[in-house]
Amino acid sequence: MNKLISLIGAPTDIGAGSRGASMGPEALRVANIVSVLESHGLDVLDRGKGMTEAVLTNALVPFYSTKRSGTGLGLALTREIIEAHGGRIALSNREGGGLIVSITLPA
User: Fold this and answer.
1) What is the CATH number of the domain that holds 48?
2) Alpha-carbon torsion 51, 52, 53, 54, what sign?
3) Interior angle at CA 57, CA 3 and CA 70, nearest 5
4) Which of 27, 45, 73, 95 is 20 to 30 Å from 7 by CA-CA measure?
5) Stated pTM of the model
6) Long-range contacts of range 13-21, CB-CB < 8 Å, 24 or more positions apart?
């Protein structure tokens, strides 16, 4: 579970770090994120461009990347960690634009 908390708390190149957000593992523990994930799951939503159907289909596959210098490991590792804990991750587009990343873990 600590690896999952660290992974979720790590800023990404897509946004949080560039806006000065600092929600690391300790902040997530204080926010009781573990019990929320186990009892209700977690949806992370944004209002970006979303993903094409082809990208949605392949985004969780190792080494798949839409970035020229991307490794394609970020979402794939996230999926591996979540599934190793008996959970699931799903990606879907939001109506009106953006993406929903849904994470659930067993109680």
Assistant:
1) 3.30.565.10
2) negative
3) 60
4) 95
5) 0.64
6) 14/48, 15/46
